[in-house]
Design a protein that fits this description.
The protein is α+β, with helices and mostly antiparallel strands and 484 residues long. It folds into three domains: 167 residues, no CATH class; 34 residues, no CATH class; 168 residues, 3-Layer(aba) Sandwich (Restriction Endonuclease), CATH 3.40.91. Helix content is 37%, strand content 20%. The chain is built from 14 helices and 19 strands.
């Protein structure tokens, strides 16, 4: 039987926060060690306070020593993982703490997926326990190093290296899976209760309920079982697994079937994305909400360009950091062309931002917010240009395929004016703005809707009898670095 911690056994974890104490001690070899302990309650007989080395901050690195509480005191939280090291941050350095407030500030800045409450022993959160369990299987005594960039993880001897962005995406993906299965479990319990308590009593009055297939399962059952409602629950996963495992064979023998399946998934996914976008437009949300939405759906941002683009980084540092590490300049998103690698900066504002203001009775003029946003992104582009060489040398590979041929700039702001005079003034202004594309939120939504309509109207192609032409056989080719 698993050993319960003292805190769990007594059920008093919520009462312990006020007793937390951190001791910051300078190391002889440099840096600062932070020790964690709980002060005993007043008039308590225990006169010895157990301590645990919580973290070490040295040379810009933050090292965490995950632990757990047992009846015998504190001990390492994981059997196969020694410690977790978070690498240097260019614009948010790890500074050596001097007191409880500094330690708390460090904990609050830990990467997503890491525990910030010392009462839980740090390390990974309980929701993400699958991550350390998997990593520990790679080798004995693994050191996890979390660095910048977004490259896939790799193992070198006992050093497991993973990027912070890669970890964040993994954590969010795993939590999405957990939420989906929790919803499915609740639905199945309700169905079981209904059938066992009501249908069993009077099936005519309370007809038995059946679990409805989720959209994901329905797509994977296309052309495999048209009467999927009659497939027993225990067999549904087997059918889905059969389609997934035989995808390559289906693509070879029945490509039209696989194409139809993929097309349906793309259409429904895009439809859900459009519905979410439309709903957000009605709520008057702030810039930060939209930035998080586009961070999770970077595909949408690629629609502001006329050539294929890919997401590079959110809130990229562009220039301006002082010696003390403060004062850096950041944009909202950095994109690059898939073909040439030419970079583009995107500045995200709010749909509620005013585009125009009154100048004369019959002549609207650009608002301060619109002009300021254009000036802002132009300044970011200038700083990006002057500091590009240093940025590429320090980016841990995130900019390896990006090039500064002719950096583009985009401002996503406001909604298209409804009055004719205002539309005319807005269109006239943005078409004379040099080097900055101004796109409104409803115009971007229209591009999403046009894409959905094109996918919905596109028929499935006939099976291929010959191999497609090679890229060398195509004529022409656009080598322009302009993304618009």
């Amino acid at each position: 039987m698993a050993t319960k911690s003292v805190w769990q056994a007594l059920g008093i974890q919520d009462q312990l926060a006020d007793r937390i104490t951190f001791d910051c001690e300078k190391c002889a070899e440099g840096g600062t060690d932070v020790y964690f302990h709980l002060m005993p309650p007043p008039n308590h007989l225990m006169d010895m306070v157990r301590r645990w080395r919580l973290m070490t901050v040295a040379d810009g690195l933050l090292t965490i020593y995950p632990f757990k509480s047992t009846v015998n005191g504190y001990e390492p939280k994981y059997e196969g993982i020694d410690r977790i090291v978070i690498g240097r941050r260019r614009h948010d350095a790890w500074e050596e703490p001097e007191g409880d407030g500094d330690v708390q500030s460090l904990l609050e800045r830990l990467p997503e997926g890491l525990e910030t409450n010392p009462l839980n022993g740090l390390g990974f959160t309980s929701l993400d326990r699958s991550i350390p369990q998997s990593i520990a299987a790679a080798a004995s005594g693994v050191l996890i190093f979390i660095q910048g960039g977004d490259k896939p993880p790799y193992l070198k001897d006992d050093l497991y290296v993973i990027s912070e962005l890669y970890l964040k995406r993994l954590v969010r993906g795993m939590r999405s899976i957990s939420s989906r299965h929790q919803r499915q479990a609740r639905t199945e319990k309700l169905i079981l209760a209904h059938n066992s308590l009501l249908s069993a009593m009077d099936e005519n009055k309370f007809p038995p309920r059946q679990k409805k297939l989720s959209p994901e399962a329905m797509y994977e059952l296309v052309q495999v079982g048209r009467n999927y409602a009659g497939i027993p629950k225990t067999s549904q996963r087997s059918v889905v697994g059969m389609v997934s495992e035989n995808a390559q064979a289906i693509a070879k023998n029945a490509p039209d079937v696989l194409y139809e399946l993929a097309a349906k998934i793309e259409r429904v996914t895009l439809q859900e994305m459009i519905a979410k976008y439309e709903d957000m437009l009605t709520k008057g949300l702030k810039e930060t909400k939209w930035q998080r939405f586009f961070e999770a759906n970077t595909f949408i941002l690629s629609l502001v360009f006329t050539v294929p683009t890919v997401f590079v980084q959110e809130t990229p540092y562009v220039h301006g950091k002082r010696v003390d590490g403060k004062g850096g300049r950041f944009s909202d998103f950095l994109m690059r062309g898939q073909g040439t690698g030419n970079v583009a900066l995107i500045e995200i504002k709010s749909p509620e931002t005013d585009l125009l203001t009154a100048y004369r009775a019959e002549q609207p003029c650009p608002s301060t917010e619109l002009v300021g946003s254009i000036t802002q992104v132009l300044g970011q582009r200038r700083r990006l240009t002057t500091g590009w060489h240093n940025l590429k040398g320090e980016d841990n590979g995130a900019l390896s395929n990006a090039e500064l041929y002719s950096p583009q700039a985009v401002v996503l702001i406001g909604k298209t004016p409804t009055a004719k005079a205002e539309r005319e003034a807005f269109e006239a202004f943005r078409n004379v703005v040099k080097d900055v594309a101004v796109i409104t939120f409803d115009e971007l939504l229209l591009r999403l809707q046009y894409l959905y309509e094109a996918l919905a109207a596109q028929p499935a192609p006939p099976p291929l009898d010959v191999a497609p032409p090679s890229p060398d056989a195509t004529e022409g080719g656009d080598e322009s670095t302009d993304l618009f």
